[in-house]
Amino acid sequence: MGAERMIPVRLLREGGADLLPAYQTEGAAGMDLRADVEGEVVLPPMGRALIPTGIAVALPPGVEAQVRPRSGLAVRHGVTCLNSPGTIDSDYRGEIRVVLVNFGSEPFSVRRGDRIAQMVFSPVLRASFQVVDDLDATRRGGGGFGHTGV
């Protein structure tokens, strides 16, 4: 496993310590994010909702957090994240919220503490552009969108 970094986290509502993101296994790349909702939020088929997590973080410069779907929710219920992966920038200090969508055929309920997404930390490379007349040639060239076949 790689080096661990301490990320400052702020609990936004009373009694939210049980909502802290956590790795579920030793080798997990992502920490599970939990819902911080009152009662339940029901996503009808093809419905979507912005689900709060009750936390805000202070990421160090040069680090982003990516919010990604949980595979179990996708395969069992057809529930996934829109805007995926969602990016949490190092200068964002607001609440982490997850856009869930229900592509399943049954309503899906979200309750407080449910694991709704995962958060993966990644280094960020900032870039600038240099305008050129030509790009270096590659074997692939401009081929894309299925050019290698099925």
Describe the structure.
With 150 residues, the chain is mainly beta. The protein has one domain (15-123): Deoxyuridine 5'-Triphosphate Nucleotidohydrolase, Chain A, CATH 2.70.40. The chain contains 1 helix and 11 strands; from the N terminus they run ββββββαβββββ. It has one helix spanning 71-77, and strands at residues 9-11, 31-34, 40-43, 48-52, 55-57, 63-68, 79-81, 86-88, 97-102, 108-111, 115-123. Strands 2-11-6-8 form a 4-stranded antiparallel beta sheet, with no helix packed on it. Strands 4-9-7 form a 3-stranded antiparallel beta sheet. The longest helix has 7 residues, at 71-77. The mean pLDDT is 94.
Task: List the keywords.
mainly beta, 5% helix, 11 strands, Deoxyuridine 5'-Triphosphate Nucleotidohydrolase, Chain A, 1 helix
Summed up:
By secondary structure, the chain is mainly β. It has one helix spanning 71-77; strands at 9-11, 31-34, 40-43, 48-52, 55-57, 63-68, 79-81, 86-88, 97-102, 108-111, 115-123.
Distance between the termini: 36 Å
- Helical proportion, percent range: under 10%
- Rounded mean pLDDT is 94
Q: Mind telling me the CATH class?
A: Mainly Beta
**Total strands:** 11
Structural classification: mainly beta
Radius of gyration: 19 Å
Report the uncertain regions.
Answer: none
Residues in β-strands, percent: 25-35%
Assign the CATH topology.
Deoxyuridine 5'-Triphosphate Nucleotidohydrolase, Chain A
